[in-house]
Specification:
alpha/beta, six-stranded mixed β-sheet, 9 strands, globular, binds adenosine-5'-diphosphate, binds magnesium ion
């Protein structure tokens, strides 16, 4: 059984069709979810998390319907939201302790001393954080409890260049330990190229391509880069 299995998942918001007959399955490995703004990436992620219910179709996460078994499924997933919002009046470290308590796990010291967290900002109140610090805190809380499914929705947003390099290193490190499904939605294809095993391209709520990274590049790219393959499949300008 796959970690995530989606069968003909569709989602409508009034007249907007956010997802149309999406069939996907995720197992071990790093999956890159790419597509223009509004192509349905976040909606699909929210459905995987049980935060939204599909209009039609079916999804199983760890063999359960995430909408009806929300608490059970959600507690096994590490999730970095697209737009992180944390309480401003607590310190980062207190927030992480709070998340660990909710997940009923110990706050692994390896998590807090991870290389993405340079500096002592965790001791400060979140209200004083820069956008990049908020993003780093978001990443750390996603890793608490060593979840086997990690979903990162635009993890590099707001990170400075070094932060992005650290992010790539971190995902590579998690990947090296193996045994995890990591789903990363991003617009930064150069980063994705360094970390992902599989690529899924969405457009207007549909999956328009999915393959291993190597085969996808081989099939579509003229210069061996993911950016070029993506531009060609989207019918855009050659880059
Ligand atoms: N709660 C909502 N209510 C109405 N429309 C929504 C809602 N969430 C997403 N949408 C719409 O669904 C489409 C897909 O959005 P989204 O999943 O956020 O795309 P992406 O993450 O790929 O940018 C967009 O047209 C968006 O405006
Ligand atoms: Mg999104």
């Amino acid at each position: 059984m796959s970690v995530v299995e989606a069968f003909n998942v569709s989602k409508r918001f009034g007249k907007i069709i956010a997802l149309e007959n999406v069939n996907l399955s995720f197992n071990n490995g790093v999956y890159g979810l790419v597509g223009p703004n509004g192509s349905g990436k976040t909606t699909f992620i929210r459905i995987m998390l049980g935060l939204q219910k599909p209009s039609s179709g079916r999804i199983l996460v760890f063999g359960k319907d995430p909408f009806y078994s929300h608490d059970e499924v959600f507690s096994k997933i590490g999730y970095l939201r697209e737009k992180c919002a944390f309480p401003k009046w607590v310190t980062g470290i207190d927030y992480l302790r709070h998340v660990a308590k909710l997940k009923q796990v110990d706050l692994d010291q390896n998590v807090i001393h991870h290389s993405v967290v340079k500096g002592d900002f965790l001791e400060r109140k979140i209200g004083t954080y820069s956008a990049g610090m908020v993003q780093r805190l978001g990443l750390l809380q996603a890793l608490i409890g060593d979840p086997s499914l990690i979903i990162l929705d635009e993890p590099s947003t707001n990170l400075d260049p070094l932060g992005r390099v650290e992010m790539v290193k971190l995902i590579q490190e998690i990947k090296r330990h193996g045994g995890k499904s990591i789903i990363v939605s991003t617009h930064i294809l150069e980063e994705l190229e360094q970390i992902c095993d599989f690529i899924i391209v969405m457009d207007k709520g549909k999956i328009i391509a999915q393959d291993t990274l190597g085969k996808f590049i081989k099939s579509f790219s003229l210069d061996g880069t993911l950016v070029n393959a993506y531009a060609r499949i989207m019918g855009g300008a050659q880059v």
